[in-house]
Each structure stands twice: as structure tokens, then as C-alpha cells.
Amino acid sequence: MRPSILKVLAYFDLFSYPVTPGEILFFLDIEVSPADLAKELEDLTHERLLFRDGEFYSLRNDPALAVRRTRGNRHADELLKIAERISRRLYRFPYVRGVGISGSLSKHFADEHADIDYFIITSRNRLWIARTLMHCFKKLTYLTNSQHLYCMNYYIDEDALEIKEKNIFTATEMITLLPASGNGGLTRFFDANDWTTRFFPHYKNRPKEARGPLPTSFIKTALEKLLDNRWGDRLDDTLQRWTSRRWQKKEQRGERNVKGDRMSLQNAKHFSRPDPGNFQQSVLDRYNRRLNELQTQWSLTPSSENL
Hints:
Layout: H1 2-13, H2 21-27, H3 34-46, E1 51-53, E2 56-58, H4 63-91, E3 96-102, E4 117-122, H5 127-141, E5 151-157, H6 168-176, E6 178-182, H7 185-192, H8 218-226, H9 230-252, E7 266-268, E8 271-273, H10 279-297
Parallel strand pairs: 4-5
Antiparallel strand pairs: 1-2, 3-4, 3-6, 5-8, 7-8
Helix pairs in contact: 1-10, 5-9
């Protein structure tokens, strides 16, 4: 059980996020009883390999971590209400089949600078029409300084539901993705990625669809019918090429966003997403280094399994 507990604590320690026993149980890569886990956590705390602050466990003896988490959880409660309302609005755009809440907010945490990130599923071969319409709308949100509430940064269509990168980072993102709106699109996505149970057995028990079906707007239905032909195919292809060229120029110029992160976009006909070679790979590299250090400290045999 200890190697599995360590994996959970080491991952969330990268984000300075202490976790509860229930969360540890949920993210374990093995199935254990709550009673057995509680006993092991008690032993680890007694050996000062873990530190407890109220209901939270951490690898660091730092009370400020629990304070930060509690404050972030309260702010997340506020943003989740906004995110659920906005997700219903986003679902009304043509060709959108599902909207999920991702990023730190999906882990029930938001600091004072948090954005609201969305994961968008579109109908097949219409991703770029949907994305362009949604990002044209986002331009208007700058007028009210609410653009941080509309971070639509990951799109896939129904022909690319399986995530190709199969690692602890993508598995964590999928097991925590919150279904927000849609009529079946997210269920098909979660089913297409059941490989995640190799990392998290509890993935199979996660909620798969938003609560209740959403009505389809007249504009959405009309535009989808209007472009259900070769002209729609050509328009989608043109928008993909245009967006790709524009982002290539941004990357060549070394542009960065307001947070100072390098701007990059990986895209093809059926997906549009941040380049995994940046943030995702950085997290995996840090996680592997941290885990190897802690395995030595905990007198465990280092292993690359499930990383």
C-alpha cells in the first residue's frame, strides 16, 4: 500500500495541495478498504513520513498548505457555480456535443488568479467551425474583462475521443474532469478512455454525464443543417489551416500569455489542444524526480511503473 500512497501524495505535492483520506483512496492505483488506509496513514504519520493538519495529509510539515487549500476550495465553490452556468451557454454553440470543466477548478481548487478551463467535444469534422465561433464570442468577453471565465483550450471531435498520451498526468485530468453540459458526448469520451483504470481503478465509477439533457437552440440546429454538406467540410478545413498558420507565427515570435507561459497549440483535423511537450511534460519530469527521491526516503524500491 505504501508505494501507492506515495504516488498520490507525490503528485499532489507538486501543486502544494494536501489531500484528505477520501481523496487518497480515490486516487490509489490499488483497491483497499478505508480502514486499512486509515491504519497505514496513521503509521506513516507516526514515522513522520507524512504530516497531518486537520483532515489533510501532506509530505511537508507546513500548516500554510492547509490554509491555502481551504481558501482555494471556498473560491472554487464560487467559480463552479459560474462555470456551470457558462457551460450551458457554450453548449448552445453549433456542433458542440459536450462541455467539461477541467484544470485546477476540476480538482475543487482556485486561487485568486484562477481561470475557468473547459474541455469541449464537437461533432465529427466540425471542430474548427465550432472553435472559431466560440473564440469569436470570447473576443467580446474582453470588453467586460471576463475573458478568464472562458478559457476553451482543449477541443476534440467525435472521431478522436481516445486520448493518445497515456500517463499519470492525462489520467488525473480525466478522472477529475467534471461533466458540465451535453447530451451523451462526455459519456462516449469517458468510455473511450477506460485505459485510465490502469492508473485509477475508481475511474470506472466516476460520473460520466452532466445532469439532465439540454435543449438545442434554433440557431444551433439551423446552422448545423445549413452546413451539413461539402461547403461545411471545406469551411472546417479552411479554418483549421488558418488557425494553424496563425499559431505557428505566435510560436515563432515566442509569444507568451498573461501568466508568462509560452503560447503553443497542437492541432489537426480532429483536435486542438495545448502542446503536451510544455506543461504536461514538465509536470511528468518533476513527478518522476520527486517520486524517485521519496522512494529512497521511504525505503521503497524505485520503479517507473505507472508513471
